[in-house]
């Protein structure tokens, strides 16, 4: 799917990270437009809309929270589907959700967000200008709206039922009984690159999905240990408040982990690394994994000439349960060392 991306001013300084978020779902970014001042009706000014006219894209991703009327106006104007930052993040969550409960929680968040949109679309429906928008297709928006409302009620009921049966924060046990290692970190830190490199290194044993766990997991054998490695959603800067609940649902895979690998981008300024480490610890303690062994994979050291000073600085920020290994996932540097550290922790040593 070829997409165009609109980026508001407050993310211009985080452009790479925001585009990284888009690439999690849409790998083919055709063009990027910067939005200085959003216009109330269509979000994009007529100038920006003209700019987009020259870009061959199938979907517009706006890295901002849009009002329902803006989504609908944009879709009418461009005759293409429009997704905003909240919807994009919910798509990312949906892709990572493992358990039934997490899936339902995310589905509920999506419905809550979509219903006002569709209500807005109903107002335009008779004009026949929104064909196919939001997947309404030939059913028409009125029916689509009612269908979503019914679905929302059903998902809410089922979720309550599920929670009643299992208790809210049940202890999750992995069906295989294997230890579980979760890779976490901010968008673009290199989680997926590290996941791919490590599963390649430790001969993954079959890509079969672990149904009770996240879909992005692989069994890894290294020396005489075998463990499950999971690539998580990780942390997203500036998470919209209405989807925090859904975010916590994606963290199940972290809360059931025995060891965490926290991927940190070494090329970021030390101050940003400090804030990210602190935020991460805050979330860990909220979901009850405080004190578990954490291996901080200081990634992308290939981008620094001499990385020893950065290693020393970041080491100065570590807590007692954290250990730092400088790595480069793409250059495959120090991956053996990281695997050895994991091995030691999994065999019962300390981090
Ligand atoms: N130079 C360099 N780039 C890396 C490294 N690891 C990942 N990247 C790049 O960083 C970007 C984000 O990587 P990705 O694995 O998708 O990050 P994720 O969002 O944490 O899963 C990609 O463009 C990668 O090629 C590394 O060790 N060195
Ligand atoms: Mg990733």
UniProtKB/TrEMBL annotation:
Its annotated function is as follows: GTPase that associates with the 50S ribosomal subunit and may have a role during protein synthesis or ribosome biogenesis.
Name the chain's protein: GTPase HflX
What are the binding positions for Mg(2+) in this chain?
Answer: 192, 212
- Binding-site residues for GTP, renumbered to this chain: 185-192, 231-234, 299-302, 328-330
**Which species does this protein come from?**
Desulfurococcus mucosus (strain ATCC 35584 / DSM 2162 / JCM 9187 / O7/1)
Q: Does the keyword Cell cycle apply?
A: no
- What's the domain of life for this entry? Archaea
Can you give the residue ranges of the Hflx-type G domain? 179-350
What family name appears in the similarity comment? Answer: Belongs to the TRAFAC class OBG-HflX-like GTPase superfamily. HflX GTPase family.
Please verify whether the record's keywords include Manganese.
no
Which Pfam family, just one, is annotated for this protein? MMR_HSR1
- Organism classification, top ranks? Archaea, Thermoproteota, Thermoprotei, Desulfurococcales, Desulfurococcaceae
Instruction: List keywords of the entry alphabetically.
Output: Cytoplasm, GTP-binding, Magnesium, Metal-binding, Nucleotide-binding
